[in-house]
Amino acid sequence: MIDLHPEVITALQTTCSSVYRFYPNSFTNTPMLSFYQNGNSSEDNSDLLTKVAFQVDVWTKTIALSQEIPDPSGLRRQTMRFEGTFNAIDGNLYSR
Which residues of 61-79 are buried (b: 16+ CB within 10 A; e: fewer)? Predict the structure, then answer.
């Protein structure tokens, strides 16, 4: 297993100042992003190639996203999923 949470947080913070792991603590500052890892597995015991998957949710008070999911909080949420393979030899993440 590889821990890519620090890299994901850094990448998301370049686009939005409010980034949360899992579910946001509050909804006062929108837009905001939340994310969680929904996959991390190696095809062998060496962890040289690790398949990783993340879900990122964009939260907003305005209707500015396509295909928003109404949330009980009253906000709009757009869900995106990303998958790739992390190569421990060269340190790169390759998309599928």
Answer: eeeeeeebeeeeeebbebe
